[in-house]
Amino acid sequence: MNIHEYQAKAVLKSYGAPVANGAPVLSIDEVEKAVDQLPGPLWVVKSQIHAGGRGKGKFVESAAGEKGGVRLAFSKEEAISHAKAMFGNHLVTAQTNKDGKQVNRLYIEDGADISRELYLSVLIDRATGKPAFVASTEGGMDIEEVAHSTPEKILTLPIDPIAGVTDKDSEQLCDALKLEGDARADGMKLFPTLYKAFTEKDMSMLEINPLIVMEDGHLRVLDAKVSFDGNALFRHPDIVELRDKTEEDEKEIEASEWDLAYIALDGTIGCMVNGAGLAMATMDIIKLYGEEPANFCDVGGGANKEKVAAAFKIIMKDPNVKGILVNIFGGIMKCDVIAEGVIAAVKETNLGVPLVVRLEGTNVDEGKSIIKNSGLNVIPADDLDDAAKKITEAIKG
């Protein structure tokens, strides 16, 4: 689960991290009040959407002008003008589609005199199975570009989960970021603080880009992006309350209510599969045959007829879907249950696109019989390759 920058900063501030004073704006009527809460002389008006690259983004609406989604203001009047121009308009960044995301929230905060910009994140290092810091002196840039062009400027430091962040770890991070004086003293305090927030709140990623050294020599978290492990949210009702459903795909929201693993994609072939590995293989073979999957949808091993029907109907809500591939290997999930759910959903949705079904495993004969005797126009497939071939041919007519 992702949260907005202002929410991430509030979480980090509660742990003692240095962040600027700021005020969120949740409606256009709150703009002037938020601006008045800050003394100036510099205000920073930030669009709050779940996408990176906001500063370099552009608004679709001409009323918002050509400026990005992060703007500086040197008077209250200018700050209010920026806020009103951005609020409610669609911001397009490198991480959104061509339509962008509507800005429904803003964050207005105190400006800062920046001496240096640094990069710092905490994530799970899959290679070591441990939390790790990633640090670079190249702040304010895409870390992927830094890794590609100057990998020697990046330090990845795994942390022993038993020992936590030691003084030696903090010293190594300070050295990598070339921190001296007050900034080094701040870093020695900040790194254990961030690690504590990361582990206690079950974060999957904590990214600060940039972490700045100010002109007065101290550190400040200038931007923050935080994601949480969805499997651990039951331990954090306070974090669940931060969820902004307007930033999520409606189909993904509905899928979460049915406990379905569903992720919307940009392709034309809807997929319903049981098991993450089989789902990935199904999407790969669709691409092999020249098409793109419209979604990742794993109904899991213990789904019932109603859950299967719900998954099918969620897939059908995507207007880009031109065909559907159901690929089930029955173990705990029985093929006849899948067949009953698919038939029920097809009848309810008046399916108007080709449907290919491949069943194998527990009760496979019963499942195939249900589909064969349904009277519906369903294309059977013998194996995964056959299924992918048939659905790609079907949507091409």
Task: Summarize the structure in words.
The relative contact order is 0.09. This protein has three domains: 21-110, Dna Ligase, domain 1 (2-Layer Sandwich); 114-239, ATP-grasp fold, B domain (D-amino Acid Aminotransferase, Chain A, domain 1, 2-Layer Sandwich), CATH 3.30.470.20; 249-395, 3-Layer(aba) Sandwich (Rossmann fold), CATH 3.40.50. A hairpin with a 4-residue loop joins strand 8 and strand 9. The mean pLDDT is 91. By secondary structure, it is α+β, with helices and mostly antiparallel strands. The strands form five sheets. Strands 8, 9, 10, 11, 12 and 13 form a six-stranded antiparallel sheet that branches. Strands 1-7-2-4 form a four-stranded antiparallel sheet. It has helices at 5-14, 31-36, 76-86, 143-149, 167-177, 181-200, 237-240, 250-257, 276-288, 305-316, 335-349, 364-372, 384-395, and strands spanning 22-25, 43-47, 58-59, 70-73, 90-92, 101-102, 106-110, 114-125, 130-136, 154-158, 203-214, 219-221, 225-228, 261-264, 269-273, 295-298, 323-330, 355-361, 379-381. The radius of gyration is 25 Å and the shape is elongated.
